[in-house]
Amino acid sequence: MEVVAAVREETRQPVKTEKADNLQASFVLRLLDEIDYGLVLVTAQGAVLHANHLARHELAIGRLLFASPGGVVTGRSSALTEQLMAAIQGAVQGRRRLLYLTHGEQCLPLSVIPLAPAPGAAAGSVLLVMARQRIGDNLALQMFAREHCLTPTEESVLRALCDGREVDEIAVQHGVAESTVRTQVRALRDKTGAGGIRQLVQCVLSLPPVVGASCGEGGAARRPASAGFQFV
Residues 6 or more apart from 159 whose CB is under 8 A from it? Predict the structure, then answer.
């Protein structure tokens, strides 16, 4: 029993991460590019320190946020800019925020997360995490479909379900009867073992994020980290 207790105690020891501080910056930036959410690291004044490729695409198209010529993240309207900067200032004080930036029909949920300051630094930076815009665009869904031997049509139906479409909408989109789509949904449930549409979609939502070689709407290619921005 003492041996078992000693083994259990050993397994409770936290993983040592001292070497993480020595990781090369280029490696860390490449790692951020593999996260399936737009990430923007900013200063307390909103100056962009780094944006991963999904965030660069979002800032480039300027739906709700963009980077000014001076490299400061800015809202599409003055109201959005004020809302964002207030959240950033709050994050500098250690407060986390979840924003819903809206303009017309556009909406972008955004987490504003304070980061601990680096040793010797006056203040910490702030991480802006953009919501994933289209679950169906996640490469993990394609891998999920391949793993479960889904047909191209079944994969297309699954993508539509993950994007929040109803069966009747999918039928119109595919130009088929609703009964055909319901048959395809049953096939999806049988192949994946899901008990219903909700569980099926949840299976996809819980997949680890996998990012392809291209990013954003229209498959915009990745750009160098410094492209289009004036980093601080």
Answer: 136, 141
pLDDT above 80 (res 83)? yes
Q: CATH number for the 139-205 domain, one of 1.10.10, 2.40.30, 2.60.40, 1.20.120?
A: 1.10.10
Q: What token pair was written down for 108?
A: 């972008």
Condensed to tens digits (0 to 9), the pLDDT of residues 35-46 reads 778 899 999 999
Residues 204/140, Cβ–Cβ less than 8 Å: yes
The three-point CA angle 227-66-57 to 5° equals 50
Q: What is the pTM of this model?
A: 0.66
Of the pLDDT bands very low, low, confident and very high (cuts 50, 70, 90), residue 136 is low
- The residue with tokens 């954003």 is 216
Helices (H), 112-174: 139-147, 152-162, 167-174
Is-same-fold flag (7-132; 139-205)?
no
**Helix axis angle, 197-205 to 139-147, nearest 10°:** 120
- Decide if 25 contacts 32 (C-beta within 8 A): no
Q: Angle, nearest 10°, between helix axes 167-174 and 178-192?
A: 110
In sequence order, which ranges of 34-151 are alpha helices (DSSP H)?
53-61, 78-92, 139-147
Mapped onto helix, strand or coil, the DSSP state of residue 132 is coil
Task: HSE, CB side, 13 Å, CA atoms: give it for residue 103.
Answer: 14
Helix (H) or strand (E) holding 214: strand 214-215
**Of 73, 123, 135, which Cα lies nearest the Cα of 99?**
73
